[in-house]
Design brief:
707 residues, alpha/beta, 40% helix
């Protein structure tokens, strides 16, 4: 261990993330959560773990290949030591996963939702499965034996296969039967209720017919996870090379990167495991045996198969994001924003006002240009269509499209091409620096003067995730913010990342330094200092140390951190004035809020940036001040409700372990509060409007009678 690293109030990033994912699995065990939603949380846990191995474990394996020894700056441990810690921590999580799935499937059977094995089927169902196998499945199978003439096949990342030990002619061979991607994850059986059999279980049953010249002595479902991390070094490219072509090659390459994990479901002994480890060059510690299905994505589809009355009992009630009461939906959006700032709170409030603003700008004669940074878009995006329409209407539209949004590269490439065809100017960011900011700038000419409408958000311009993630969207006509945004786009277009801004905090050169200056201001207040941070992750060592210094100066620091938190709170004499809590609920917490101080004098920001080194040093990020009194009040209310949550919130202890809140207050879930408030807002607005109209009518009648 590197003894120069102070580890008294820090913890390993990867272990912190695994504790967060354990919180996701805890939701699958929560009796207050509807059954089908509990299944979804189990599937989310599995999906999260997949990405963790592809990205983080893959990156650590890459680091073990470097000759110079690297020491983690939070723990002082080497990559190899971190990997060992991860493998030890993951084993009990797999056991919890199996236990949760077993319990939930038992509950499902009581509701006539049954995942069945072939041996459980009656004669009619067996005929249906057999016919499906012969007619739909068998014609597209690609079985293979592995011997001197048949090399071990490439097993694609996260693809399911059936692995078999075969005996014939005095030989023992390995057989591989990939589960075709073209097949659905399960076959629904022709019975009342929702009865189904997984496709891999059908192949397990009929493998003997596929390899009919052999005797099968062992068989199991297997899945290989491969290193999918794209490091800054991977992203280096020749200046003369079309960047889109480069990213196509990177995406294609991803499926063939080195294995980092093998999952096995079923099987009788270690012989099959040993053969697979040898063929895949994996250590035994990289193999994880599971009892429940390896792929759990199919669980998301079960709810849609339920009759209405069952869905009402077993699923969350459907919710439609509401139109914000800060705007009149019957008026144009841009004139309203010119009068007053507007803060949208997704998914409780709809993205519709922002989309309408861009749509209005696309056809507004006074609009000169629209500029926007895009990190992720939905596969079907109205925003992109409006930008295309604006370009076709003669507006100058500039889109800085980040092609390296992990796992969304192909979608972004396609949208970039569509936007370019419509006449938009497309920029692709910078070598070694991702553009993760969420900024849209509308430039207008009114009465001979240039005026700006600026939108800054904490989340992506993705209309689908805006209904699933909590995020904030500020729309403002503040001209100083607009001037900063205009300068930001000009600087990005000229590859100048070191710009100077008055209102906005912009990384990679100024955001962290300005945040640390705000922390210094609170430290100067001593015990009267106050900091509230809402983040997805905290890993930046410089900011961790600065927050610890603030605690030692007596500053109260409250942090709502959804996922990774490398700072340990409550460590006596070091971080004892720091509180950390996490919220996992129906919606994914994604909002970033920075608050320094209290009341009217507080510095209040919404931001695209977490406090991670990649955000502060290797990305273009933007934090925007919230200045308008009404929007500030709304943001303070959000901060207050987050801290009052005692249902979904968990408090981190000095050991990094989360515990339930014990405050003695009545149960209160902030997400439920926000949803109820959003649903009641139109009623309050209608009542207020009705009272105003009633008072006006009374005054008119009185005037009429007086005449």
């Amino acid at each position: 261990m590197n003894k120069e690293i102070d580890t008294r109030y820090t913890q390993d990033r990867e272990l912190s993330w695994l504790r967060f994912n354990e919180r996701v699995l805890e939701e699958a065990r929560d009796e207050s959560v509807p059954l089908m939603e509990r299944l979804k949380f189990a599937a989310i846990f599995a999906s999260n773990l997949d990405e963790f191995f592809m990205v983080r474990v893959g990156a650590l394996y890459d680091m073990t290949l470097i000759k110079e020894t690297h020491f983690d700056n939070k723990t002082g441990r080497t990559p190899q030591e971190q990997l060992q810690d991860i493998f030890r921590a993951v084993i009990p999580l797999y056991k919890q996963r199996d236990k949760v799935i077993d319990e939930l499937e038992g509950r499902c059977r009581a509701c006539n939702i049954c995942r069945l094995q072939f041996g459980e089927l009656d004669g009619k169902a067996k005929k249906q499965v057999t016919a499906w196998f012969e007619n739909e499945v068998r014609p597209i199978l690609s079985p293979q034996i592995v011997d001197i003439h048949h090399p071990f096949p490439h097993l694609p990342n996260k693809g399911l296969s059936i692995a078999l030990i075969l005996q014939g002619d005095g030989k023992e061979l390995l057989g591989i039967l990939p589960v075709p991607d073209a097949l659905p994850p399960f076959l629904r059986l022709e019975e009342r209720g929702v009865h189904y059999i997984l496709t891999e279980d059908v192949l397990l049953e009929f493998a003997g017919q596929v390899f009919d010249q052999f005797t099968i002595t062992d068989r199991a479902v297997i899945c290989v996870t491969r290193n999918a991390d794209i490091t800054p070094e991977d992203e280096a490219y020749d200046v003369d090379m079309d960047f889109r072509q480069h990213m196509r090659k990177v995406v294609k390459k991803r499926t063939r990167l080195a294995p980092v994990r093998l999952e096995i479901q079923g099987g009788q002994g270690d012989k099959l495991t040993g053969i697979l480890c040898q063929r895949l060059a994996l250590a035994r510690e990289q193999v994880f045996r599971v009892k429940s299905p390896i792929h759990l994505e199919y669980l998301f589809k079960l709810g849609s198969l339920l009759p209405k009355e069952s869905a009402a009992a077993l699923c969350d009630p459907p919710y439609t994001p509401q139109f914000t009461p800060m705007l009149n939906k019957n008026e144009k959006i841009i004139p309203q924003i010119e009068r007053q700032d507007v803060l949208l709170f997704y998914p409780f409030e709809s993205m519709e006002p922002f989309l309408r603003m861009v749509s209005e700008a696309a056809s507004d004669p006074s609009v000169l240009s629209i500029k926007i940074t895009i990190y992720r878009l939905a596969a079907r995006a109205r925003l992109a269509e409006y930008l295309c329409a604006a370009a076709e209407n003669g507006k100058h539209v500039t889109v800085l499209m980040e092609l390296r949004a992990r796992f969304d590269e192909q979608n972004n490439i396609q949208w970039a091409e569509r936007l370019e065809e419509a006449g938009c100017t497309i920029l692709y960011g910078f070598e070694g620096i991702k553009v993760h900011s969420k900024v849209c700038l509308i430039t207008r000419r009114e009465h001979g003067k240039v005026r700006y409408i600026t939108q800054v958000g904490t989340g992506n311009y993705n209309e689908k995730t805006a209904e699933q993630y909590t995020d904030l969207c500020l729309m403002t006509a503040d001209q100083e913010i607009g001037e900063d945004a205009a300068l930001l786009f000009q600087n990005m277009a000229t590859a100048n990342l070191n710009g100077k801004y008055d209102r906005l905090l912009v990384s990679p050169f100024a955001l962290r330094e300005r945040v640390m200056a705000c922390i210094d201001e609170e430290m100067a207040k001593g015990k009267d200092g106050y900091i509230f941070l809402k983040l997805n992750s905290l890993t930046d060592r410089k900011l961790i140390d600065k927050l610890a210094q603030a605690s030692q100066a007596g500053v109260e620091v409250v942090m709502n951190i959804r996922g990774i938190c490398c700072l340990l709170p409550g460590v006596e004499g070091l971080t004892d004035h720091i509180q950390v809590f996490s919220i996992v609920g129906r919606y994914l917490e994604h909002t970033r809020i920075y608050c320094f101080g209290r009341g009217d004098s507080a510095r209040l920001y919404i931001a695209s940036a977490d406090f991670m080194t990649r955000n502060t040093e290797r990305r273009v990020e933007v934090a925007c001040p919230v200045l308008d009194r009404q929007t500030r009040a709304k943001l303070f209310h959000i901060i207050d409700e987050l801290q009052r949550d005692n249902v979904k919130a968990r408090v981190m202890g000095p050991d990094g372990v989360y515990h339930r809140k014990k405050d003695g207050e009545a149960p209160r879930s902030c997400q439920e509060v926000f949803q109820q408030e959003a649903m009641q807002a139109p009623e309050r607005e209608s009542a207020r409007t009705g009272k105003s109209a009633g008072r006006l009518l009374t005054r008119l009648r009185r005037r009429f009678l007086e005449q």
